[in-house]
Amino acid sequence: MIQKPRGTLDILPGESEIWQEVERKIKKVASLYGFREIRLPTFEMSELYKRGVGETSDVVQKEMYSFNDNDRRNITLRPEGTAGVVRSVIENSLGNGALPLALYYLISCFRYEKPEAGRSREFYQFGVELFGAKDASADANVISLAAAVFRELGLTDVHLEINSIGCPNCRPKYHKALREYFETRKDELCPTCLERLDKNPLRILDCKSPICKEIGEGAPKTVDHLCPECEEHFNSLKKYLDAAGIEYKVNPRIVRGLDYYQKTVFEFITDKIGAQSTICGGGRYDGMVKELDGPDLCGLGFAMGLTRIMLALEAEGVLPVIDESPDLYIASMGDTARAKSFEMTEALRSLGKRALFDQVGRSVKAQMKYADKMGAKYSMVLGDSELEGGKAILKNMQNGESCEVEIANISTLAECLK
Ligand code: HAM
What we know:
The chain folds into 2 domains: 16-170 and 226-315, BirA Bifunctional Protein, domain 2 (2-Layer Sandwich), CATH 3.30.930.10; 328-416, 3-Layer(aba) Sandwich (Rossmann fold), CATH 3.40.50. Helix 1 (16-32) packs antiparallel against helix 5 and helix 5 (136-153) packs parallel to helix 9 (228-244). The strands form 3 sheets. Strands 1-5-6-11-10-9-7-8 form an 8-stranded mixed beta sheet. Helices cover 38% and strands 21% of the residues. It is of the alpha+beta class. Strand 15 and strand 16 form a beta hairpin. It has 15 helices and 16 strands. The protein binds histidyl-adenosine monophosphate. Residues 80-82, 111, 113, 118-120, 123, 125, 127, 129, 257-258, 278-283, 301-305, 307-308 line the site of histidyl-adenosine monophosphate (HAM). Residues 80-82, 111, 113, 118-120, 123, 125, 127, 129, 257-258, 278-283, 301-305, 307-308 line the site of histidyl-adenosine monophosphate.
């Protein structure tokens, strides 16, 4: 038997309806905040992620699904959404339209990571990106949107951590401080981090190796090395969050795993789902659009991991309850009755009722067993006598009560299916 590739998910009926409901709620909140959906390719030129996400990030160094296509173009399955959105904003000159530009997406992403609960190789994200808003109120607005999604979904055990990682002005001084610190424990760093020490020492703070993590604990903090502009931005963000009543903790250890961030970074974390507890991560990426040959357009956003949200909903006991069971199952005896039952289900569906009929030609007993398995709320049997008399018995499958209905009067029948 061929099995699904390691680290992928089958979302089966029963689960898929829950996903649909969660996505519906997410879209509702995104729309309330004025964000519009953008749909983009599942794969992009690898160059986009190398330049956009950054050569020193784990994602680019170790986790990308890249391949040469038949024209020998190097292609990568998207490991995240931001780079593709930035590419599209530039390619379609969306920055020339009304600003700020507010976009959201619901996508699958691909990363070659070690699968565990809440971490898969194909996973799903809800993300937003906001372009052309420099003020810290925009950071607060985007964070507020994420918080509103959690509220809408009924998640309560989620907390927000924020940090500022500075900008190209303050970063050289901070990098110097970091290098000096890590030089003292150079011999203990993993080979990847040894390379990062030269190129981008900030990335060492995001390394998953336990030793590098432990060394990182004592490293200098970004918030102690901010330039006046970044400090002002960070203080302003905190004021906006306070004013909006959004609780947060400043965590100087948040640096995020992708290279494009500047100034604000943030994560929403839950204690309920084990090690992969970050259900949302984001921040500001003001230099990225220009870096990718676009205009000087600032940007910020976040992405939520939908698989982790499902785990959190389950852990908090607030998974949406979905009823997809049929309103009516019409069992039939013989070809004429089956044709009539098909005609009736079609009419009922047009009135918004979920109606099923026998498509197999099974015995009435087998049909009723199927109706029961499908959780049908009502059933009806059509045979020659029902067709001749124009009447049939409608049975409530839950309490066994029954009543007589006219076969030809579909709107009355639909009324009975409550
Ligand atoms: P990220 O932190 O790499 O950021 O991913 C965002 C979220 O996606 C994570 O917090 C997590 O919930 C989920 N996630 C990441 N990797 C996996 C995985 N292997 N399995 C399951 N869930 C996962 C970004 O992707 C940025 N593009 C976010 C952003 C948008 N920043 C600004 N705009």
